């Protein structure tokens, strides 16, 4: 990716001007000794930085596989994992987290995609006003709405309830998700839709059959964003979840710290379980997602 | 939704469309078909937007209005109590705790924004040059941002919390004494800020990377032929070209920092002696630990006003630059 931008300062312009495509190709391949040395220095530097930065993550993984001091086993072990799932509500917490997060992702995309389509294609005061409203809402501190929502949800029986949690997650992802979808839809030419109208498609039909069908990267990017937010949230969970068996994973991991002696092996085993899904999602779908995309979608409209 | 007659004029008709407001039927003389399609689009837009509007009113609008009610009443979470006007705001603003928290929030935000920007931009620039397996490092360096805060705060806690934790123990072994990172007010504040930078720099790295990728490499060739040094190229070309994206990422990061709860709360709980209590943590404590809903919501409101101003300024700025 960056290789294409890196041109040889000394040789680049003359060669490409004189020799055409072959000349330019040769210039890219001619790497001076200083450049090679520079590359290894940079590699060493980035390697060192990466190792230091990842220390806290190594710690989690290593401790998760280290046997407890009371244990008879030595070396690396899966004991902590079996312990934490056998002796605590870990499997319930995992299930709760999965249910909440997946519902959030699905509903969030289902709400944001149509709204993003209107934001992208609609040209009126009402639409741009709504887009401004969404932008302002995404910057509000969630703590402001959490208190009134706590009262509202208490009356509706939605406190200590996964549905209540999901509703709040959907709403808090929706604002940015809508902007992300709208920015993606902007890149899909209206002429594609016009063709479908000629074929007798309705506006809604062209949205689902033409625009949405061509928007897989945009949808995935929005879905990953919603996934990370719902999976990682702590503030809403700590306010709305009361009982152990309703806890999501963040609350579960955190609940270990209220006991007197922290059982680090179990905490870290559960922490590994908790960080795996986002890492897997990211590793698999990385190419569809860029953090810059979020900023870009907020900026690009 | 409804089936329709196709028309080449639809796109043009929709351009002048006001959802919910109608598309001036018949304004174009005999073009009934176009106006019919326009009103169909209007209706479709209305239904497509409805779930979003409903959620916005229920989960953002209603609570904001009700928060206004709570902020002007005494009473607790269960009972709203009596109307007290702006007393809560006056009490909050008169309390040293608020100003201490505001001060920490300011420090936390400044360090969070510029610390993560400097680290993130530095790494983005480094990764832009040719490095073996550069893409792999890019993904690895994203991990602090991807790993849940609950997990990473647990790890940081394990590394520094007690005198026997690895980092204090290492410092003791080096003869530098045993720093109590989470018990000493200054060190705790430093720790929280460092943790925030650790969590946030990947965001800045990605923002900078995507801005850099749109910069045309040939301008550097021209500059280096004119004898510009690396540093001159950076300040003279790179920075101005990525300025807009940088500006946006600063403001977004400001919003993230001011609103941040878990990074601080999970590492220090706001302590020791309130040294790391930010405004969000203070508001949370007032409402859910001291059961003073009014003052807590008043604090949240003051933050809201600040952030709305920042947001509005950002929005106008972005609008202005995208019109150009």
From TrEMBL, chain A:
<dbReference type="InterPro" id="IPR000515">
    <property type="entry name" value="MetI-like"/>
</dbReference>
<dbReference type="InterPro" id="IPR050901">
    <property type="entry name" value="BP-dep_ABC_trans_perm"/>
</dbReference>
<feature type="transmembrane region" description="Helical">
    <location>
        <begin position="219"/>
        <end position="241"/>
    </location>
</feature>
<feature type="transmembrane region" description="Helical">
    <location>
        <begin position="43"/>
        <end position="65"/>
    </location>
</feature>
<keyword id="KW-1133">Transmembrane helix</keyword>
<keyword id="KW-0813">Transport</keyword>
<feature type="transmembrane region" description="Helical">
    <location>
        <begin position="162"/>
        <end position="185"/>
    </location>
</feature>
<feature type="region of interest" description="Disordered">
    <location>
        <begin position="1"/>
        <end position="26"/>
    </location>
</feature>
<keyword id="KW-1003">Cell membrane</keyword>
<keyword id="KW-0472">Membrane</keyword>
<feature type="domain" description="ABC transmembrane type-1">
    <location>
        <begin position="94"/>
        <end position="285"/>
    </location>
</feature>
<dbReference type="GO" id="GO:0005886">
    <property type="term" value="C:plasma membrane"/>
</dbReference>
<dbReference type="InterPro" id="IPR035906">
    <property type="entry name" value="MetI-like_sf"/>
</dbReference>
<dbReference type="GO" id="GO:0055085">
    <property type="term" value="P:transmembrane transport"/>
</dbReference>
<comment type="similarity">
    <text>Belongs to the binding-protein-dependent transport system permease family.</text>
</comment>
<feature type="transmembrane region" description="Helical">
    <location>
        <begin position="98"/>
        <end position="120"/>
    </location>
</feature>
<keyword id="KW-0812">Transmembrane</keyword>
<protein>
    <submittedName>
        <fullName>Carbohydrate ABC transporter permease</fullName>
    </submittedName>
</protein>
<dbReference type="Pfam" id="PF00528">
    <property type="entry name" value="BPD_transp_1"/>
</dbReference>
<feature type="transmembrane region" description="Helical">
    <location>
        <begin position="264"/>
        <end position="285"/>
    </location>
</feature>
<feature type="transmembrane region" description="Helical">
    <location>
        <begin position="132"/>
        <end position="156"/>
    </location>
</feature>
TrEMBL record, chain B:
<feature type="transmembrane region" description="Helical">
    <location>
        <begin position="180"/>
        <end position="199"/>
    </location>
</feature>
<feature type="transmembrane region" description="Helical">
    <location>
        <begin position="139"/>
        <end position="160"/>
    </location>
</feature>
<keyword id="KW-0813">Transport</keyword>
<dbReference type="InterPro" id="IPR000515">
    <property type="entry name" value="MetI-like"/>
</dbReference>
<dbReference type="InterPro" id="IPR035906">
    <property type="entry name" value="MetI-like_sf"/>
</dbReference>
<feature type="transmembrane region" description="Helical">
    <location>
        <begin position="247"/>
        <end position="267"/>
    </location>
</feature>
<dbReference type="GO" id="GO:0055085">
    <property type="term" value="P:transmembrane transport"/>
</dbReference>
<feature type="region of interest" description="Disordered">
    <location>
        <begin position="1"/>
        <end position="32"/>
    </location>
</feature>
<keyword id="KW-1003">Cell membrane</keyword>
<feature type="transmembrane region" description="Helical">
    <location>
        <begin position="101"/>
        <end position="127"/>
    </location>
</feature>
<feature type="compositionally biased region" description="Gly residues">
    <location>
        <begin position="18"/>
        <end position="29"/>
    </location>
</feature>
<feature type="domain" description="ABC transmembrane type-1">
    <location>
        <begin position="102"/>
        <end position="314"/>
    </location>
</feature>
<feature type="transmembrane region" description="Helical">
    <location>
        <begin position="296"/>
        <end position="315"/>
    </location>
</feature>
<dbReference type="Pfam" id="PF00528">
    <property type="entry name" value="BPD_transp_1"/>
</dbReference>
<keyword id="KW-1133">Transmembrane helix</keyword>
<protein>
    <submittedName>
        <fullName>Carbohydrate ABC transporter permease</fullName>
    </submittedName>
</protein>
<comment type="similarity">
    <text>Belongs to the binding-protein-dependent transport system permease family.</text>
</comment>
<feature type="transmembrane region" description="Helical">
    <location>
        <begin position="44"/>
        <end position="65"/>
    </location>
</feature>
<keyword id="KW-0812">Transmembrane</keyword>
<dbReference type="GO" id="GO:0005886">
    <property type="term" value="C:plasma membrane"/>
</dbReference>
<keyword id="KW-0472">Membrane</keyword>
